[in-house]
Amino acid sequence: MDFLIEILNKQARLFPIVITVDDANKRKRDFDILPALALLEKTSDPKNIWCVTCHNEDVEVHHVSKDRAYTMCTQNEHAKRDYFNPAEIQQWQFNIENFLSAFQKSMDILSPTISESIDSLLWSLGTQTINGADYHLFFCRDINDIEKPKLSIITHLPRSAVFYTGTPQISLPDKVLLVPIIDLFQKITEKGLFLKKEAVEQFFSRNTYATEDGSIMLDDNLALEKGYLLSDQSTRGVFKKTSEEKLPPLACIIIEHLYGIRKYSQNSKTLSELVTDLGHSKQVISKEIKRISNVCKKNNLPEILHKYTGNKWGINHRLKYSE
Ligand SMILES: [Zn+2]
Asked: What are the φ/ψ torsions at residue 57 (nearest 5 degrees)?
């Protein structure tokens, strides 16, 4: 496990990563598993190798002849050329795609997908359901390396989660869930990668309620989803609580109707106007308005509707949703 973590930490800085025979020998036990899972693959004629002088960088291989090549350390100014026989050097390359598919299996993702969104930097793992909510999943080698305009690949989606290596230093909108991938690992065996269930739960909490297309975001902490009021948003579109009582269709229609006009000059309506718009009697509409208020009170939620001057009903101006 430690060896895989070390590789992942290194590859946040360098890509692609190579592991020399020396590296491998030092981590014998760990090492045997990685090629077995095809996470490491032998490379012939590597273009870059790990610097033998400083052991801290990837350096370019310069070929002199068939059996003679050298590298040159760039961090030590007194360094001389490090000569070696390219035929004798054995190196492995970390296969990130195979790692990502092993990772998706460990997440119990039934139909794993991988596509490279930004060359050698960002991979899309598709939209997947985790603990009842849909997330668009990404893996990012080093999120600080993503150019600003390209961040929209992640941020334009309604709900995305980015598994990352390295240390993110950029700020992303709240709706993006950042998950340090290494923190999820439990162990790696010939059977594959295993995750700490409790760490996964911590990021993708269970017993949550997710909004879908067509749900009404009344507030950053309040949504109307198929008749239920969802509150206490943990990540974008994922709520921790739901009202026990389901609002009848007419109550939902009233909320939806008033929500739809909230941005216009006529942002509240009298009962008579609602009667005309919705085709129900005053008593029936009043009863539903009362019911909405009761459900809010019972669930400790802010009032959704507010009676404005002139006995006009509208969406409570205190509800704010940051789009
Ligand atoms: Zn060096």
From this structure: -160, 165
Average pLDDT over residues 274-303: 95
Expressed in angstroms and rounded, the spacing between residue 13 Cα and the centre of ligand 1 is 15
pTM: 0.69
pLDDT digits 0-9 by tens, 86-96: 877 777 888 99
Cα 146 to ligand 1 centroid, rounded to whole Å: 26
Tell me the CA–centroid distance for residue 263 and ligand 1, in Å.
61
Ion ligand 1: residues, CB within 5 A, are 51, 53-54, 57, 73, 75
- CATH 1.10.10 domain extents, the chain: 212-315
Q: What pLDDT, on the 0 to 100 scale, is given for residue 86? A: 81
CA dihedral (97, 103, 109, 115) in degrees, to 10, reads: -20
Please, what is the angle between helix 282-298 and helix 271-278, to 10°?
Answer: 110
Q: Would you say domain 212-315 falls under CATH 1.10.10?
A: yes
Cα–Cα distance, 231 to 219 (Å, whole number): 9
pLDDT at 245: 87
| Phi, psi values for residue 315, rounded to 5° | -75, 135
How far, in Å, from the CA of 12 to the mean position of ligand 1?
18
- For residue 232, the CA-to-ligand 1 centroid distance in Å is 51
- Determine the angle formed by the axes of helices 249-260 and 271-278, rounding to 10 degrees: 110
